[in-house]
Amino acid sequence: MKLQPDKSDVQTLTAHGPGWVAINNEKVEGSIVVGSRGERFEWDCTSFDQIGAEHFAQLAALGAELIIFGSGKRIRFPQAAWLQPLMAKRTGVETMDTPAACRTYNILAGEGRHVVAALLVEPPDGAG
Fold first, then answer.
1. Among 10, 20, 56, 90, whose Cα sits 20 to 30 Å from the Cα of 65?
2. Which tens digit of pLDDT belongs to each residue from 58-101?
3. How far is CA 69 from the centre of its chain?
4. What was the pLDDT predicted at 5?
């Protein structure tokens, strides 16, 4: 009995490392938003300290059922006030470190869910 398709048509996070992630094997340096319905754009932040309410308002406009926030090398939670636009649209938000967010996005996107991964990709240690 076949339980999963051979190939998914959604964007897949295929690898990650210090300062980068790969989307369908294309290496992307810097923070990025990627979605199961083709959403993909640079996310204007290189550290957790640069993230603010405007970043989450931008995510709310995407209309996803779930936002997976990859908070970088370690788990850090956004301020509750930043999530108000998402809560108003009844959009779920899960926070985890970026490597875990990549894995979780792939699972949910592969199930056909409308999910968006907002990934904080921090520069490698020692990089400017």
1. 20
2. 999 999 999 999 999 999 999 999 999 999 999 999 999 999 99
3. 5
4. 47
Note down the domain range covering 104. 29-119
Q: What is the total count of domains within the chain?
A: 1
The single-letter DSSP state of residue 14 is E
* Structure-block tokens of residue 12: 């897949």
Cα–chain-centroid distance for residue 53?
16
What letter represents residue 122's amino acid? E
In a domain, 55, yes or no: yes
pLDDT at 2 over 50: no
Task: Choose the weakest-confidence range: 23-27, 74-78, 122-126.
Answer: 122-126
Query: Which structure tokens are listed for 88?
Result: 């108003």
Residue 22 placed within a domain: no
Q: Give the residue, 3 or 48, on which the prediction is more confident.
A: 48
